[in-house]
Amino acid sequence: MSIEQENHHPGDSRFFSKSGPYTIETLVKETGAQLNSPDVLTKDIQYTGIAPLQIASSSEVSFLDNKRYLPLLAQTKAGVVIVAPAFADKVPQTSHALVTSNPYLAWARVATLFYPKTPAKPGVHPTAYIHPDAVIHPSVEVQAFAVVMNGVHINKECIIGAHSVIEQGVQIGQYCRIGNHVSLSHAVLGDRVTLYSGARIGQDGFGFAIGEQGFVSIPQIGKVILKNDVEVGANSTIDRGSVKDTIIGEGSRLDNLVQIGHNVEMGRCCIVVSQAGISGSTQLGDFVTIAAQAGLIGHIHIGDHARVGAQCGVMSDVEAKSDVIGSPAMPFKEFFKNVAFLRRMAKSSKGKEDSQK
Amino acid sequence: MSIEQENHHPGDSRFFSKSGPYTIETLVKETGAQLNSPDVLTKDIQYTGIAPLQIASSSEVSFLDNKRYLPLLAQTKAGVVIVAPAFADKVPQTSHALVTSNPYLAWARVATLFYPKTPAKPGVHPTAYIHPDAVIHPSVEVQAFAVVMNGVHINKECIIGAHSVIEQGVQIGQYCRIGNHVSLSHAVLGDRVTLYSGARIGQDGFGFAIGEQGFVSIPQIGKVILKNDVEVGANSTIDRGSVKDTIIGEGSRLDNLVQIGHNVEMGRCCIVVSQAGISGSTQLGDFVTIAAQAGLIGHIHIGDHARVGAQCGVMSDVEAKSDVIGSPAMPFKEFFKNVAFLRRMAKSSKGKEDSQK
Amino acid sequence: MSIEQENHHPGDSRFFSKSGPYTIETLVKETGAQLNSPDVLTKDIQYTGIAPLQIASSSEVSFLDNKRYLPLLAQTKAGVVIVAPAFADKVPQTSHALVTSNPYLAWARVATLFYPKTPAKPGVHPTAYIHPDAVIHPSVEVQAFAVVMNGVHINKECIIGAHSVIEQGVQIGQYCRIGNHVSLSHAVLGDRVTLYSGARIGQDGFGFAIGEQGFVSIPQIGKVILKNDVEVGANSTIDRGSVKDTIIGEGSRLDNLVQIGHNVEMGRCCIVVSQAGISGSTQLGDFVTIAAQAGLIGHIHIGDHARVGAQCGVMSDVEAKSDVIGSPAMPFKEFFKNVAFLRRMAKSSKGKEDSQK
């Protein structure tokens, strides 16, 4: 088959196994959404899967998450559509509407119903290397060529991906998922921590003094603490602390290619989007968002619920609940005002120059 | 031998094996270039290799690709030099000139003549783990400790690098080259696809809803499609689609440490330079160039042949054939005008302040 | 034990083994610092370890490196504190002060005394794959599942981390430390080179010509030279040269997720902080600092001791000893003057608009 003929329907059976089918009652119960059913539609159908608006069939569930895609809603053939109240009356008469103030959350619930997480398959792959002084719960799945060193504890129902290396003394809670090719050292993980492929956790921080003969490394003797429900994206790097610990707070999520310097402390439910970097000893409160490619210098404090925009360069403390962007960082409003002002002035300056010729 | 005594001649025999020698006729035929031969030079020489202008010998071929290096051309001892017509008369009388409107392409052809790609050495390394339900063409080379899971198909003359993990169901076309330490899941690859070491293809996108208790992951049930002749650089990351597919178009090339979010669709022959990032659901046309460290937000469209400058922050659609730079993105001309205006104004403002003291 | 009860004292015995104890005389001798001892304190105590100011006990050594943390000095219970002369009189009467003009260097010496580098444990792990034509000194430690190919030479007391792949012909000096999951090809390493986990060294540079049918790869036939004492951070990428070599000078240190393009040449003791990128053929002098997320275009020259600020976009040569920041790069002073000017002007412009309403 040519690659141009690939079917783009989600849930490709080569990669995913599906649960279900489910009735509309189950979907209502799972989501807590309100059901708006056109009179012409029966509620007896068994829904078999999920799909985006433009390709969903009458036995599939879809959703609207972005008003950009409203034109697709008008034309959808989906049997069920999850929407916010504002768009409930835009759902066509051929679809049941599941109306909820948090459609994305409802979608997460329905999608998980059809595509639940694959549980750990207990057992150690015969090619893995397990040090005799490692303690691994019998329900844990250890995949091919994984390495688990002495003093490691792995709690129940974890998955240790192929080719991952868990170094001496690392502690891993329950239900953690370590992807492929992960390097994990000098670290303590809570429960349900997920590390994606190629994450590097616990290596030496970038710490050195300037000596007579060149740089002199400073032993980095802290560790990394990843609290419950933390997720770390593919190829992201988290250095261990120098004399303190690097701490990622409960439920925080880091995207791919993120850099976290030594001694960083992050609160609960922070979001760090791809290619952002946080320098050493900087502290984040709870619910802080750091957008893509933003950079924070070291030794500063970001308050709870602050939002740092994409590509922002943060050189000083950021107050709680404030939104900053630009390099150097400034309030959102100021940034866009400056941009508009500069554009206007440069244009009128150009006009003057032209008229003076 | 001290590292300071390392020879910097290209094609070090510890790492490369060379073909040839070749006559000037072969070089002319291979490149389609026009030969300008000084009367004093014989055409009988066998050329043995390639080298940069400053170190090439009379039996080697060189080229000029950047006028910055014109002073080196004047002094070169290369037997043959590939140049654009504009510089043909700058080639010294001791060199044959191969004159062509695309010297870099001619150089590619000559370099490939001397240093052809190493073909796959058929066979599976005894340390590799191949699932019994994988289908691998007998001409494929599988290197040490590679893992190939169930349902994988690998077509003819591919190379699967040491320590790479090919997860369940992945489809790989002909003549693909998967580097070392690659993680490849939920993906379909065309022919002649090249993935460099540490590339992470097919992991979950950064998708979650905000629930009462923290973030709730949304199952990511799309895949990654890498069409014919795609190349992905070292340690780059491409997330699989959420309910659609992430698609990289034919011939597109991604450099190192690039991030591609879920559902991104890229057309033919796009270039994404190192450390650039493209957020979820953004679409690129054909022949788009994204320079180094640029960032694109999600859900926007970049037209054919558009060029996005280095470190550019793109927050809205970009028209076909336009050039943008800056953060936020603006036309090249406007950006540099703004920069010059601000510099001028800030300087004169400083002058005023000083004169008022 | 709950993860919330984790002890944050440095030097956790699950991960680190400690030397000592040491007397104050040993600390003085090791650091060359001047001892200021309050009369009330005995010099007979054996110091058992190191810790930050806020948690150090009377048998531990601490230090002050950043005046931000002066309040912690006033309250410390540390038995010994390393400080600069300016803060010597701020050390409480319950602590010996070790006074030196370079406290961070003294700290490095003391920390290394308590936590010396673990030496190589000679031997090849039974799961590693060593090609019969590799030459490995008997004092070298090769960890689990490492791959060492033909023509490789590894000199004495190196450590080759688990899952690393050392490709054909690579030369490695003495006392090098290759982390886990490193890909190393087409490279020559001096002595005491350190590569952190997931570093990708020696892959093809991003070089291709534009042909009629799409892009045409140019064989990359240079190598990578990492001179003595170079360090490369986790998941960083260094492409090999095209027709020259990519060279990292003696003692230079690269942080995590750094990109180095083909043919880059870097002098001695340069610093490249995380997520910075240097494009092809750019040259750095000695003692150059490139801060986090900065980007340099190709074919430019950065003079000795120049400093490039965080997120800086460098599009042209930078003179020796100069400091630049901004995108495009400009002198530090000009950048911050421009920022202040724009802020002031945009504000007053806003004022005018408001008063005209």
Automatic annotation (TrEMBL), chains A, B, C:
<feature type="domain" description="UDP-3-O-[3-hydroxymyristoyl] glucosamine N-acyltransferase non-repeat region">
    <location>
        <begin position="48"/>
        <end position="113"/>
    </location>
</feature>
<keyword id="KW-0808">Transferase</keyword>
<keyword id="KW-0012">Acyltransferase</keyword>
<feature type="active site" description="Proton acceptor">
    <location>
        <position position="262"/>
    </location>
</feature>
<dbReference type="InterPro" id="IPR001451">
    <property type="entry name" value="Hexapep"/>
</dbReference>
<keyword id="KW-0444">Lipid biosynthesis</keyword>
<dbReference type="InterPro" id="IPR007691">
    <property type="entry name" value="LpxD"/>
</dbReference>
<comment type="subunit">
    <text>Homotrimer.</text>
</comment>
<dbReference type="InterPro" id="IPR011004">
    <property type="entry name" value="Trimer_LpxA-like_sf"/>
</dbReference>
<dbReference type="GO" id="GO:0009245">
    <property type="term" value="P:lipid A biosynthetic process"/>
</dbReference>
<dbReference type="GO" id="GO:0016410">
    <property type="term" value="F:N-acyltransferase activity"/>
</dbReference>
<dbReference type="Pfam" id="PF00132">
    <property type="entry name" value="Hexapep"/>
</dbReference>
<protein>
    <recommendedName>
        <fullName>UDP-3-O-acylglucosamine N-acyltransferase</fullName>
        <ecNumber>2.3.1.191</ecNumber>
    </recommendedName>
</protein>
<comment type="pathway">
    <text>Bacterial outer membrane biogenesis; LPS lipid A biosynthesis.</text>
</comment>
<keyword id="KW-0441">Lipid A biosynthesis</keyword>
<dbReference type="InterPro" id="IPR020573">
    <property type="entry name" value="UDP_GlcNAc_AcTrfase_non-rep"/>
</dbReference>
<dbReference type="GO" id="GO:0016020">
    <property type="term" value="C:membrane"/>
</dbReference>
<dbReference type="GO" id="GO:0103118">
    <property type="term" value="F:UDP-3-O-[(3R)-3-hydroxyacyl]-glucosamine N-acyltransferase activity"/>
</dbReference>
<keyword id="KW-0677">Repeat</keyword>
<comment type="function">
    <text>Catalyzes the N-acylation of UDP-3-O-acylglucosamine using 3-hydroxyacyl-ACP as the acyl donor. Is involved in the biosynthesis of lipid A, a phosphorylated glycolipid that anchors the lipopolysaccharide to the outer membrane of the cell.</text>
</comment>
<keyword id="KW-0443">Lipid metabolism</keyword>
<dbReference type="Pfam" id="PF04613">
    <property type="entry name" value="LpxD"/>
</dbReference>
<comment type="similarity">
    <text>Belongs to the transferase hexapeptide repeat family. LpxD subfamily.</text>
</comment>
